Amino acid sequence: MAQINTGTAAPVLEVDNVTKTFPGVVANDNVSLTLNEGEIHCLLGENGAGKSTLVNMVFGLYQPDKGTIRVHGKETRFTDSGDAIAKGIGMVHQHFQLIPVFTVTENIILGNEITKGTLLDFNTARRQVLAIAERYGLAVDPDATVGDLSVGEQQRVELVKALFRDANILILDEPTAVLTPGEVDDFFSVVRNLTQQGKSIIFITHKLREVLAVADRITVLRSGKVVGNTTAKRATQQSLANLMVGRDVVFRVEKTTTNTSTTALQTRGLRVQDNRGVQAVTDLDLEVRTREILGIAGVEGNGQRELVEAICGMRPPNGGTVQMLGHETTAWSPRRIKQLGVAHIPENRSKHGVVAQYSIADNLVLNRYTHNKFSKRGVLNRSAINTEAVALIEQFDVRATGVTAALDTLSGGNQQKVVVARELSGNPQILVVAQPTRGLDVGSIEFIHRKIIELRDRGVAVLLVSAELDEIMALSDRIGVLYRGRLAAIVDAADTTREKLGLLMATGSTTHPPQAQQ
Amino acid sequence: MRQLSKTDLGITGVSGQLHRFLTQAWRLQPLYVSLYAILLSFLIGGILISVIGVNPLTAYWALLRGMVGDGNKLAGSLARSVPFIGSALALAFAFRAGLFNIGAEGQLLAGGLTAAYVGALSWMGNLPGILTIPLILMAGTLGGAIWGGIPGVLRTKTGAHEVISTIMLNSVVLFVARWMVGSRDPVVLRDTESTVPRTKTISDTAVLPELVDSLPTLHFGLLALTGLCFVVAFINNRTSLGFEIQTVGLNPHAAHYAGMNVHRVIVLTMAASGAFAGLAAASEISGTSGYFQPGTFFLMGFDGIAIALLARTQPIAIIAASLLWGSMLSGAPLMQQEANMSIDVVRIIQALVLLFVAADAMVRYLFKVRKQDQSPFQANTIGATL
Ligand SMILES: Nc1ncnc2c1ncn2[C@@H]1O[C@H](COP(=O)(O)OP(=O)(O)OP(=O)(O)O)[C@@H](O)[C@H]1O
Ligand SMILES: [Mg+2]
Asked: Hey, which of A171, A360, A411 would you mutate to test ligand 1's pocket, going by the most ligand atoms within 8 Å of its Cβ?
């Protein structure tokens, strides 16, 4: 599909037998990889396989212990990312590095300002931003404030930023993890556009469907080693999953039907405002029964976050009530709600879910340290906390050097597993989960899906919020679609389709045809 | 814990050997920047002294004997150090909650004022020491707690940053104290029989037991405040309160999610932090001077900041750092007497120590230590707070 024949083109980037160790782990073990001009090269692997470490070395954020990196045939040693940028390498990190209060143009030129004398030349900069956006089909408004943009738009800003610095090698670390299905399609057309114009791309993702759709070549890592090289044409989802995990993976976990009984969670006329005081959830009536998974589908930003935070006591509603397990919990604190038996996997892991500097063990008791198993009369029982941690990292297969390792030394997916382990253990009665498998590899997704279903079968009421339609469809018994803060519909999972849900998510109703895309 | 290898630390050469010795043989890993800072400061101080034309070894020898030369000198040094423990602890404790309490100066004054007032109440003389001593100490603690708690409340209710509000409150209490103690019309707390502005002397029963009759008096406060450091270390490392405080400091959003009452923790931490300074002030009033003068605690709060940073805000290390700080000040006069060096040399060395501790990148560079083995604590040091 790329116009340049990948067989004969000179590699733009060669990583040759690179090794990188961190205390106690070999994150990359003799890894080699070549990237040809105009190619999309997918990097696949389990959580903690070493993908981010590898691309961070290419971008100059880490230095390899052994091995060489060549750019356009020339051996290079980057001491920081500034060197890498100068060599035409750009990276879009999973966590965006934009300044919310600045405009798009200001963010893009930051660190690479165009000046007229001593003054910033905004007009020229703005024109260049527009030209780049035009050329690669990246719709951005140069004057918008970044804080007001959706995640998808921010990502486009990051891309323009890299292109503004004349990057011809682009590294994208899990760019699609945070995008809605529609945004993913747009994103891929941008990526194809880029490669057609000679850019070369390293693309990390856990979504195998995406890999097969866009990749030219695929490199699979496992435990820091390259375990396979293939092309999208020769691979299938199952073969890739197998290569990554080393066993067969079930993409859709088996689920039996159950008899739901009593109502465990109920909202009545719930109204919640977002941070800016805008009504994000309006007059919402919702009911989750025991032994049931109620999925909430919807494009992000339609009130999901505010709904979840209101239920879990983190955001006081401005109207209506929440009832759980026979108590009116509307004004309860997060701790009281937790103690009632409500577990909550928060949507934003690094903001709410963990303390990055704490050990794994401390993170595993972050909201349970007052439990008399972990502390007595205000004194922490360190050995009980450690014992629990050892058991949980074993049970949830968290890949780490030990329970005392600081959480921020774990790979993104393993951090998520720590949160999931904490919330799923300790016998919850109600489980409120938002984006539980974001950033997880296929094997871990399967595992967590099994766990959620297992809890449901034990009688737990589950409220599942996810931007992944596949996840909603696979797990839910009933599905509610949230549209502009209201419940557009509640349907039985058994008699709905992806298309119907997509329509509901996009328009809030099934009767209107979808708005024509411009 | 896995032993850090030489290559992990990027160690080379003689300074590397020294580093290894300090950190591994002495197990002082988290404090090595401080040790180097002290070393460097004395080196530069020595150069300074020789430039002036004095043999630095003579000067330092005199300083050392001034600090610990005989029993009396040692006791005097210890006595001089006692209040620093409290003011340093005030900064360190708040620091864990991500709060930069630079109001120990004012919290000492507030505590000193309340302690002196309660200690001089006429009915105190009729009570036995077993009641009056706790009373005077509690009064000082409470005064400090209130003065520390106010910025905490302001922070949670209005968002006012504690750096600004504690600085303001330092001035407020200083002028209030000067007026209360100085004014003859009306008389508020002034001892009208004294020619200098000061409060009435506290009743005899409220005087803390003395340990050594040195100059200044080494009193029971030393034991109280060192004990307090161990208590704080225990709170920090072993209790759920300490866990909450640190969580609020590192990630208040996660603390909120985890069901901690972030506002309560902030107010409580600031109040406790002020209480430590207030207790130090009360023990000084009760153990040494017996009355309050607005100048008594001059710079003690600010020295506390330097000491806390030198000790990397570790409570136990604060004991050692305070002792060093106080005894340097206490030993300086002998250096002046014997080597004819101004006591300001000690102040210069102390300023250098603070500089090197704050700018630890310099120390790391000089001693070729890479940043990799940084303690997690440093992730949220003042750079981030300011
Ligand atoms: N700064 C660090 N210090 C110590 N260990 C680290 C550090 N960064 C990564 N590691 C370890 O290196 C290994 C590889 O991590 P890396 O982040 O590269 O994984 P990944 O393939 O990107 O995983 P994910 O899909 O979960 O993002 C993991 O075992 C991780 O714990
Ligand atoms: Mg990663």
From this structure: A411
